[in-house]
Protein: Zinc-binding dehydrogenase
Organism: Litorilinea aerophila
Amino acid sequence: MQALVKFGNHDGDVEIREVPEPRPGPGQVLLEVKAAGVCGSDLHMWRENHSWAIKLPLILGHEFCGVVAEVGEGVTGFQVGDRVACETAAAVCGQCVYCLSGNYNLCPHRLGYGALADGAFTRYVVARPQILHRIPDNVPFEHAALTEPICVAYNALVEKTAMKPGDLVVIQGPGPIGIMALQIARLRGAGTLVVLGTDVDQHRLEVAEELGAHYVLNIQRDDPVALIRSLGDGFGADLVVDCTGVSRALQQSLELVRPNGRITKIGWGPQPLDFSLDPLVGKAVTLQGSFSHTYPTWERALGLLSTGQINLGPVIGGVYPLTEWEEAFHAMERGDNVKSVLQISG
């Protein structure tokens, strides 16, 4: 079968290759992938500027859904033909304190699809039934494939962050996660929503405005601090959500947040910090990290998709066959698409 494989440690070391079809073992399910979202992390690995461990060679892709093609011995609860979305934790130990407490996203032995385990930019993927979720009948595969980034935002802004209706919320970075965070923050009752971007984000800022942002601002052309100080009581944002993947964005977060405010950091950033964190102390700011998600979040995210409370219409800029992966990647890199989706099988 064809698969999109990262094969080396240089910029652009990604190509379509023929790989063996996997077979499900006992307690496993074989999925036929129908659609898979292109994540910003896929672009980072393509460009060789990621900051997390991966294996090589590696089949990319971790945002995906499909149908059950085969069930292994001992599997119950799923049958061939079931439409399912799949979580990213391909393997966990099941025995550590994090697994036993339901926080398996933090298992030190976790192997994530498209990083330390082969991913979903291919026709077939083997999965544990414990991480499969039935897709509501009214949710198409192209939308269900994006359950994962919705869950990233949900985990950050619902499970991890103390947020109140009426809060002034600033979202740094209108990429896929930033746009999902915008929608979750709106559902949580944010009073004023501000989304910040750069020159490359012009289209994405327009999408943010369409999806409910009260203010959008290009930080390369206008002063975000002046905007935030002009809103509310002038002390700053109740919550700043860093979705940029750039370490220096935290310096801006500290300028924008109010005393006793909160910063939630979702975006990865490989660059070392070269600025003081004293404002974190002086303002008594809470800095919260957020990583991945767990089973209940997936159920809620699929429910929000089914009821139309998450709008993916403006988010998906194009659906591409696997053979056109380069255009799908380039369209996101250029900022033309908030999100590209690969259609893997018909």
